[in-house]
């Protein structure tokens, strides 16, 4: 089975003040796009760096997720520590993901540059940050997703397939 982790990083969602709209949106897009069998491994946690690092490590190392998507905690506010946690648990950073998502988000909001969203590799897991705004989820995930299956191939993960009419992915011919 292919496992994909989804972590909603939000003080308010973890306290039950918000319904977890961003996390559910990630599951919704992946369900629409992926044609392979997969299962979500789902967590909602507060913006606490230690807890976030421990959760990323658990989903990558123990649950065996090939991809972990976080939502929220990427901004400049004091409690926003998702990029720091991502960097702390990854051996390799993948700055192109953040660059492309910010460029795309700028088409929608001038505050796109306030997100420090990034991505990185922990062993055989790609960890990807999305902003917490529900609308940002699809805008950001759809623009980077075409490169994700090949990235997962390159780190020795499972072969992710998609419905071509919903989400066309790109794998260079070897
Ligand atoms: N379920 C939701 N419903 C409506 N808006 C949401 C929801 N989740 C997040 N947002 C919006 O996205 C913004 C950023 O979300 P994020 O989860 O990073 O929260 P935050 O601003 O860090 O606040 P906190 O961590 O205290 O909950 C929120 O300020 C809010 O405007
Ligand atoms: N596509 C998109 N990107 C976005 C936004 C948005 O509404 N749509 N909001 C921005 C704002 S206002 C902030 S503060 C940062 C960080 O959001 P986060 O703390 O919820 O991760 O994301 C930015 N990126």
From TrEMBL:
GO MF, one term, reads: molybdopterin adenylyltransferase activity
Q: Which family does it belong to?
A: Belongs to the MoaB/Mog family.
Q: What does this protein do?
A: Catalyzes the adenylation of molybdopterin as part of the biosynthesis of the molybdenum-cofactor.
Output the NCBIfam families linked to this UniProt entry. molyb_syn, PRK09417.1
**GO terms, biological process:** Mo-molybdopterin cofactor biosynthetic process
Which InterPro entries does this entry report, sorted A to Z?
Answer: MoaB/Mog-like_dom_sf, MoaB/Mog_dom, MoCF_biosynth_CS, MPT_Adenylyltrnsfr/MoaC-Rel
Under PANTHER family, the record lists: MOLYBDENUM COFACTOR BIOSYNTHESIS, MOLYBDOPTERIN MOLYBDOTRANSFERASE
Q: What is this protein called?
A: Molybdopterin adenylyltransferase
Q: Name one Pfam family in it.
A: MoCF_biosynth
Judged by the first EC level, this protein's enzyme class is transferase
Recorded hits in CDD domains, A to Z, give: MogA_MoaB
Q: Does the keyword Transferase apply?
A: yes
**Can you tell which superkingdom this protein's organism belongs to?**
Bacteria
From what organism does this protein derive? Spirosoma radiotolerans
